[in-house]
Amino acid sequence: MKSSVITVTQFEVTRTLKKKSFWILTILLPLMIAGFGILGSLGGKSASEAISIGKSEEFSFVYQDDSNIVVESIAQEYGGKPVDSIESSIPSVKDNTIDAAIHIPANPLKDQIVVIARERGLFSNSAYYTIVEDLLKDSATDHIDNKDYLSIINSQLGISLTTYKNGEIAGAFRDIIAPGVFLILFYFSIVLLGNQMVNATVEEKENRVTEMVLISMNPMHLLLGKVLGLLLLGIVQVVTLVTVVLLMAIGATLWFGGGPNVANTSADTVQALSQFSFGNIPIDPVRTTLAVGLFFAAFLMTSGLLTMSGSMVGNAKDAGQVFGFVVMGLMLPYAALLLIVNEPGSLVTTLLTWFPLTSPVTVMIRNAVDNMDPIQVGLALLMQLAIGGIFFRVGARLFGAGALAYQGMSVKQALATLRGR
């Protein structure tokens, strides 16, 4: 028994070590982890720069100070100018002449500070909170002989922020809901169905029924049929999932809105749930339409990549490794989320936008936060469709050529097959 175990162990280790895919994936894994760390670090740095406006001449605002706390010389260092009333300055905010108009009430510890500002983006709007707090606390420090003013330094200030974009009130978070839903659906579809896609071409090899199938069917038709079938199954799963979530949301609204536990629920929670309505979600027809197209283009390209990869491997074990590698590549843009949102023109964002493996998620993120021109989004969509079509055609060639071998093929063999040798 002992010798048999040693023999089997030796066989498995030797066979695996001889595979190039084992070494490639082993080396790529730490490199991808390092990539996640680097992108996360760059994103964190970008976010810090975005939310800390600081004493910059590039930032301009007017302020109405009813509390007499603000020191004018300190406000000037931040780019501020005093006015009797901010009402007349709101049009300047709407047309981007100035960045913000701030109204500081007589008692900022009890009453909310009102900020009317230019929309800066999903994460960058927090810069307005930072500058108001820093301005008041720096000014309060200057009044060192006044205990009431000094209490502001250690207090949490209430700030009401309203932002404008293109002359209209903007809702940075609400605006991304409609196009962002399709990014979530894409990830659900890949997580739920991705492994089945890469195994779609492997199972026929393992079951040895491929030769019978290919006698009466074109390999391309077989792959497309499998992917369309999986897509329909994915739609059923997504619809079921969304239905369950909606029923839970409606149940929570009814429960908190008039159920027996209302007394134990915070007033803010009850109000938020009772006022929730899908009619309050803004829908940009251009961005939402592009989001739908990007979802299907991303699904086509990813499924094409997975089925092409599945055509090259010979068993489910290798197929699982391929799926893991593709999923890690798809998740890479999440590590750079802050960088993608705050610095759309950076080299890293550009590379992630146009590199095929990272393009689907990156473009859907940029379309959702509206920092990518619709024409560029359309070009990226067409690119993904074209690459997806290429993946399917290549996958069909490889599947038709290698299916009868009941084993995987190397990159060299795959290239030779595509050359017709």
The computed structural class is alpha/beta
How many distinct beta strands? 6
Number of helices: 19
Order of helices and strands: HHEHEHEEHHEEHHHHHHHHHHHHH
Quote the beta fraction.
Answer: 5-15%
**How would you sum up the major sheet?**
6 strands, mixed
**Spatial ordering of strands, largest sheet:** 2-1-3-4-5-6
Helix content: 55-70%
Write structural notes for this entry.
Helix content is 66%, strand content 7%. It has helices at 2-17, 20-51, 72-78, 90-94, 126-142, 147-150, 172-175, 177-199, 202-207, 210-216, 219-258, 267-274, 285-312, 316-335, 337-342, 347-354, 359-369, 374-402, 411-418, and strands spanning 61-65, 80-82, 100-104, 113-118, 159-165, 168-170. It has a 6-stranded mixed β-sheet with strand order 2-1-3-4-5-6. α2 runs parallel beside α14 (316-335) and α13 runs antiparallel to α14 (316-335). It starts with a helix and ends with a helix.
Describe this structure in a few short sentences.
This protein has 19 helices and six strands.
